[in-house]
Amino acid sequence: RLELPEKVRQIIEQIQKHGFEAYAVGGCVRDSLLGRTPDDWDITTSAKPQEVKAIFPRTIDTGIEHGTVTVMMGKEGFEVTTYRIDGAYLDGRHPESVEFSSNLVEDLKRRDFTINAMAYNEQQGLVDVFEGIEDMQRKVIRCVGNPKERFGEDALRMMRAIRFSAQLGFEIEEETYRAVEELAPTLEKVSMERIQVELVKTLLSAHPDYVRFYQETGLFCDVLPQADVILSGKFKNPTLKLLTHAKNTSVLRYAALFYHAGPDTAKEALKRLKLDNYTVNTVSKLLLYTQKSIEENEPAVREATYTYGKEMMPLIFAHQHALLDTTEELVGIGMTTKRRHLETVERMYEDIIKRGDCISIKDLDITGNDLMEYGLTGTQIGKTLKDLLHIVLENPKLNEKETLVAMIEHLDL
Ligand code: ATP
Ligand code: MG
């Protein structure tokens, strides 16, 4: 017996009252059976989209041509999709056609993996026609039907197999795995956006080191050569270890994946993945700044905070800790001195932020306008502010207007 959320129970019941079948299906059934909290609850039904819309007062046409209607329950929406038979995915992306069906089993058959092909409602209980439960107990990811055919219909499923295996700690069943190896080159047909979604889910999973399977099966070969290279040579093991020590954010996990490739290659790879500018820039900056060490005194830490940016500092520290953890694990020796240095710098940074020390031109107790009043012009102003900032980074006590004004004439402009 599974515990359905009240709203899901109500939707299913309403549909049944109108003479149709309805079940919770897919990821939510899998996750509930595994004792994990589902992100969302999908419902599958024998009712056609127009019939679903007639039953509920508030619906949204989410993907009506694919049979999906979102049913609003208060502020929450639930996707209700008509039983469907998918045509072939000729382009490896979208089914050429979808055909509605009145048979639940047909709908389950089109789903990717046995553990994702189970349906549940309170009246019928669990509907599991492809041994999903057995595979769950065996901890395997197995295609519904013939793996080569299924990957031929939609090449993204190969990425998904590895992603689910990383999230759940399951192994990929042998025939399914061999089909991934064989059809890996066809991943090329899939858009980078969809590939990136699966990759980041893998990186953010409990087993980020399972990215190795993208390389080992050949999935990265043409699609992401930068990751293929880094995961195949002498950097493979250090990269996988670093991934397991990296904090669970996409920036830090991408930084771990491309650490040994360096900032430029990382940037190239992340752009190729069509990641947003923030991620591309932050990861490559992080890898660049990590190559420089910060001295263990407050002026140096303030200088670094100014140069790298306040928001980069915690990322640099987290990345450095992961690097030390990795070295400790690989070498088997405690990195005590380096760790103590890092922690000291970190503590200094925190004090600097807490005290509100001046760490940028806008924190100075003097402005460009003030300098104009003292007769400075154009480029002189910019240079003077910078010079004053470096003096103040050295000694924050000097950040007082009168003191700063008194210093202007001693500056070499
Ligand atoms: P999560 O939401 O945690 O990523 P999920 O299993 O819910 O995992 P979704 O992408 O939300 O995955 O898809 C919901 C369900 O739709 C899946 O469980 C599966 O049954 C089916 N499905 C999704 N994508 C595909 C696909 N490319 N091929 C076949 N079936 C799919
Ligand atoms: Mg889902």
Q: Write down the Rg.
A: 28 Å
Bound molecules: adenosine-5'-triphosphate, magnesium ion
- Overall pLDDT, averaged? 95
Percent range for β-strand residues: 5-15%
Structural class: alpha+beta
Estimated helix fraction: 40-55%
InterPro entries: Bact_CCA-adding_enz_type3_sf, CCA-adding_enz_C, NT_sf, PolA_pol_head_dom, PolyA_RNA-bd
Family: Belongs to the tRNA nucleotidyltransferase/poly(A) polymerase family.
Cofactor: Mg(2+)
Organism: Lachnospira intestinalis
Please describe the topology of this protein.
Blueprint: H1 6-17, E1 22-25, H2 27-33, E2 42-45, H3 49-55, E3 59-63, E4 68-73, E5 76-82, E6 84-86, E7 98-100, H4 104-109, E8 119-121, E9 125-127, H5 132-138, E10 140-141, H6 147-153, H7 156-168, E11 171-172, H8 174-183, H9 192-203, H10 212-216, H11 220-223, H12 225-230, H13 236-245, H14 250-258, H15 262-272, H16 277-289, H17 298-308, H18 312-331, H19 336-355, H20 368-373, H21 378-394, H22 401-408
Parallel strand pairs: 2-5, 10-11
Antiparallel strand pairs: 1-2, 1-8, 3-4, 4-5, 6-7, 8-9
Helix pairs in contact: 6-8, 7-9, 13-14, 13-18, 14-16, 15-16, 16-18, 17-19, 18-19
The chain binds adenosine-5'-triphosphate (ATP) and magnesium ion.
Short descriptors:
11 strands, binds adenosine-5'-triphosphate, alpha+beta, single chain, 4 domains, 413 residues, seven-stranded mixed beta sheet
Write a brief structural summary.
This protein has 413 residues and is α+β, with helices and mostly antiparallel strands.
